[in-house]
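thought: user wants a sequence for this fold. calling inverse folding tool.
action: design(structure=
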């Protein structure tokens, strides 16, 4: 399988020569709808993807091994101070590591990234569960837990590491079992594991056996059509990402290498479970483009399309990560209503507030994309010059 570098991250995807089939569906406005508003905009909502339309089951897996309580490299808690690693002498003269600001640890970054990802998932289309691991695995929330239950499970994670090892195999197998006991539904579900870790597996020992076990667990997931989306954090895995690459390939998933672990807070909430790169809105009649278009991990999107008096042709175009595109068009008739009434003024004020909020969100999203692009270039150069060493190979 081809392993290209994409969007600030190394991603396993379809070969470049393969153009995937893309679909797009519009929830609102309906085709031939009549829009009456005091402003020439209509809110748009829809879904896009590269597979048959379906909803999602997701298990979020967080590493809690000792290394995650080291510094993330960024100011996670926003207090203006970036926590640094420091060593001190513990019991028996053993050297220990701590962070000058514990709220800037990798563990805190993982927790915040998970919270933001939960917030961006629509409970109507996506069911989620939560697993943590260190020397062993723990199921904290079953697939189908409410958003409140997921947040409470996150908040209940102890502020101390689970020392003694990093057990990839146990975490993946536990996640597979969580899917197996999820409440049945009548609709089609796509199953994904979102795996966040800053280390390499070392349980069961020795290390090469732990890596082999992790890949076998990923193969098990792949056979069950469960995709593993890994976020591998820090310079240790950047130097030797082979186990993550093999896990991604075995499960037809994706690997994202993030050199500065704290960036996971921004990168994780913007992943795509559907293989869609972007969605464009445009009014073909006037040539105007859509405004404040937001995309979410489950393939849903929203935005505002401009309108002119009379009949308008709106075009919605979804582009997949391998270049495939699909467009649909809706005919929308627009009649402008008075902006001088109490209701009209209230509608305009509500729209202004919503556009202001979304403008800030879009600016942040653009900044994140720029950072990811820079990370992509750095990572691409790193992988090009990284020699393949015999010790990196995972025995089959």
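)
observation: tool returned 396 residues.
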């Amino acid at each position: 399988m081809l392993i290209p570098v994409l969007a600030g991250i190394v991603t396993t995807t379809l070969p470049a020569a393969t153009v995937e089939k893309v679909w797009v569906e519009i929830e609102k406005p309906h085709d031939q709808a009549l829009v009456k508003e005091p402003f020439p905009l209509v809110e748009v909502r829809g879904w896009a993807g590269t597979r048959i339309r379906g909803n999602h089951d997701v298990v979020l897996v967080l590493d809690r091994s000792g290394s995650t309580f080291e510094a993330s490299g960024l100011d996670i808690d926003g207090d203006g101070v970036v926590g640094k690693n420091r060593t001190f002498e513990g019991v028996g003269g053993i050297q220990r590591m701590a962070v000058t600001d514990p709220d800037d640890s990798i563990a805190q970054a993982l927790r915040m990234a998970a919270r933001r990802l939960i917030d961006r998932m629509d409970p109507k289309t996506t069911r989620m569960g939560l697993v943590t691991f260190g020397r062993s695995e723990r199921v904290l929330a079953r697939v189908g837990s409410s958003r409140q239950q997921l947040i409470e499970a996150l908040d209940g994670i102890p502020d101390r590491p689970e020392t003694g090892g990093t057990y990839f195999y146990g975490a993946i197998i536990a996640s597979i079992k969580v899917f197996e006991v999820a409440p049945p539904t009548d609709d089609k579900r796509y199953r994904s594991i979102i795996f966040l870790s800053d280390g390499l597996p070392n349980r069961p020992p020795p290390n090469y056996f732990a890596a082999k076990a992790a890949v076998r667990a990923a193969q098990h997931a792949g056979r069950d059509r469960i995709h593993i989306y890994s976020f591998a954090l820090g310079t240790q895995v950047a130097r030797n990402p082979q186990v993550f690459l093999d896990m991604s390939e075995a499960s037809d998933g994706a690997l994202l290498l993030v050199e500065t672990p704290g960036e996971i807070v921004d990168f994780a909430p913007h992943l795509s479970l559907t293989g869609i790169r972007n969605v464009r809105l445009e009014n073909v009649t006037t040539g105007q483009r859509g405004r404040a278009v937001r995309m979410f991990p489950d393939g849903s999107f929203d935005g505002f399309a401009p309108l002119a008096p009379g009949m308008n042709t709106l075009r919605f175009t979804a582009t997949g990560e391998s270049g495939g595109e699909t467009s649909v068009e809706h005919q929308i008739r627009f009649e402008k209503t008075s902006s001088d009434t109490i209701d009209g003024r209230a509608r305009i004020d509500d729209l202004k507030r919503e556009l202001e909020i979304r403008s800030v969100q879009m600016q942040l999203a653009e900044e994140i994309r720029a950072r990811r692009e820079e990370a992509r270039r750095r990572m691409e150069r790193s992988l090009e010059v990284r020699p393949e060493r015999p010790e990196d190979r995972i025995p089959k």
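thought: summarizing for user.
answer: Here is the designed sequence. The domain at 5-11+26-50+282-374 is CATH 2.60.40.10 (Immunoglobulin-like).
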